Amino acid sequence: MANKFLFVLTAVLFSITAHAKESAVDNYKTYCVQCHGLKGNGNGVNVRDMSVQPRDHTDAKSMSGRSDEMLFKVIKEGGPSIDKSILMPPWGDTFSDDEIKDLVQHLRQLCKCKFGS
Amino acid sequence: MKIKMLLPLVFVAIAAPALADDGMAIIKRDCVTCHNISGPAPQTLKEVWNLKGPNLAYAGNKYREAWLVSWLQKPQRIRPAGEFYGNHIKIGDKHDVVDEATLKDHMVLSKADATAVAHELMELKQHDDLIAQEKLEPGTGSKMMGEMMFDKFLGCMACHRIEPDYGGLSGPEVYTASRRLQPQFIASFIRNPQAWEPKTWMPNKHVSDANLQKLVYYFDALAAGEGNGK
Fold this sequence. Notes:
The complex is a heterodimer. By secondary structure, chain A is mainly alpha-helical.
């Protein structure tokens, strides 16, 4: 009886940790900063030898030229899915769709911009 | 009083020779503060940020034993920005740079200890299942074609160095990969990095079987080319 309870409790706790959603700020800091930079301006630690430079996410002018749907697509499927460089990776196996939606909103905060504005 | 002080000394004298041969005792004493040896891999970002060294819980599925023995006696940096990379970068003039002051030299083992430790590490095989799925053919490939694929077609160079000072910094250098790693591990990790490390900052680029095979040949060609690079 006590054992059964413990087992269920562990199973529940485990599934919570395994599927916990991470915040967009934390995901950006872990995955995007390596190329897009600590400031989000495209100047990451990896950029010196990259043939195409990462997008400056603080640049309202270029970022407002992209719809939220397009930003979602490029994060999930990578640069080539919107005719951009292969150096922008696909993150569909790293994030849930929910986390990608949150990242799109985070990009809107970085550029302080909306689509078409 | 005198006897009380002597007693621990006697114990140390008896225990010491036994420890020198016992790889697992060395690992538990000196390595587990920085390395995970029992799994599971990090499941949350908090755990990723707290990483102080690569996961060794599947060392036996990953490394070449001979390389382990020699590297542990003469460790050289493999990840230009350490582990976890985010704890070792800072804003620079033109772009973010590695914060060298935060990177420490790795501890060095004697030949006897390195041999004993490597032997124990090779017993840690959490992912025989993933390794068994890889079917590789022996063969060779051209370094030039391999580089085209690694850089231009697949965009891997953004995070990996293909020469001592050329390429990205957030991932391990690949010009020594085939000297360090088992070919099945190389193929399996590229095929599905998240199966090994669910929260790794290497993305799954859905590389085809044919290209996985070519990448393994490319890393062979790269490793044959240089010395140890440094």
